[in-house]
Amino acid sequence: MERRVIFSGWLFPALLLVPQLAVTLVFFFWPAAQAVLQSVRREDAFGLSTVFVGWENFAALFADPDYVGSFAVTGLFSLAVALLALAPGLLFAVMADRVVRGAAVYKTVLLLPYAIAPAIAGVLWMFLFNPSIGVVAAGLRWLGVDWNYLLDGRQAMLLVILAAAWKQISYNFLFFLAGLQSIPPSLLEASAIDGASPRRRFWTIVFPLLAPTSFFLLVVNIVYAFFDTFGVIHNVTQGGPAKATEILVYKVWYDGIVGLDLGGSAAQSVVLMAIVIGLTAIQFRFIERRVHYA
Amino acid sequence: MVTARGRAWVPHAVLTAGLVLVLFPVYIAFVGSTLTARDILDAPMSLVPGPRLIENFARALDVGTVKTSGQPVAAMLLNSLVMALVIAAGKIAISLPSAYAVVFFRFPLRRLCFWMIFVTLMLPVEVRIIPTYKIASDLSLIDTYGGLTLPLVASATATLLFRQFFLTIPDELVEAAKIDGAGPFRFLIDTVIPLSRTNIAALFVILFIYGWNQYLWPLLVTNSPGMTTIVIGLKQMIGSGDTQTEWHIVMATALLAILPPVAVVLLMQRWFVKGLVEAEK
To answer: Is B64 in a helix, a strand, or coil?
Structure first.
């Protein structure tokens, strides 16, 4: 889409663009190019010389069982976070769309976790589930569950998934609610007159009409789980125990900043870049289509 | 609108469960912040608030904890506030003009410029972590507010949102401005910015929260205790070490870290909801 009526000249618009482009070039394009460059080179231990090694860093990466393991961990983590954040978001939105009394209170409270940083959500959940002091951990022990996420990898995974998903429910709730409210009431009334039960109305009319929103949210949630949950992992498990919760973003930080493996970390960055580009492309292709049909 | 008669209590029951799910972790943190360290360590702790709310918050604000080398949380709050405000204002200040340039002019390389801004969506800090750190250190931005904020102020989202809005400004307004002899600068100041007020407010809320909740970048770019933001400071208070974690102070700090962004969301809820749903379209 383009405007028909415009102003002439190029100097003024160029000046307007300078700040944004300068920041973009210095802090986005330059480092991204550096990451790509580093990923095909190897630096000696003193940083004195570098040699071109081609795919070697990538080959080493995918030959490393820790990295492949981290891929599996990330896949499980992000799918679980996406589903556990989407399903309650949808449920609460459908219910909030039905109530009249108290609707404002429900909406306001359900929005709150959006404002809470993932890192802080991690701390709150850790406080509940800490094996020695957590109140939920005490309850679990009372029920006979041997709860210690510091030692048990599956419990650790469960805890970071819960903390990460909890924070994201608000976002999904908001979008599902907006989606529900854009469904024309006449459609639902017509089917109600035809005798469709509320359950049937939901599955045959509401749910299909929410499909675009759901798909969009699925991508957003996966991106969130991939990239924005570093704070949860860093606070709650530090990737442990025994790398059970070491997601890709945690590993790229750990190997690069703590382990100082520049080539390997850069190769990991490039892999992550490919993943974001893929996810963003899916998201925008789909949005184009939706705009097209709307 | 069709209303489901009969089982009207079902939505209320489900939503109440939702409220409990949202509020329970925050409530337990609140209870923790009103107890003594001893009360919490003698697990399980009480589920009703104790009497030490004010002492714990005052201690957090003034002294912090031993683990954060006595860095007061008040100073961390200030750092977070500066970071969030500069990021939010900075993103708006650089993306509104660039969207204006892309929408209201035709000039060589216009598409390339737009594309360059758009592509930053695909380059979050996480994928360019070490080189970005290196540039920040080459520009001696480590442990400065500039370092905390500058690398985060480029925003494709804000530019896209403003672009979308600018495309809906009627041609007649532009024609009228031209007939009145207003140039592009006057039109920007007198017409476009006032028309964008709602969008600016909505975007400000979203960007403030985005800035306040940053984690990985502040972790990299700040080392000195004086530059610690509250979200990072909270982590340092817990860290695994030989000294006991002072959970009562940690919980008071967690609540202090949550309060400002929650207040912003509550106070500007209408704009925020509208802005969030539109920004992502």
So the answer is: coil
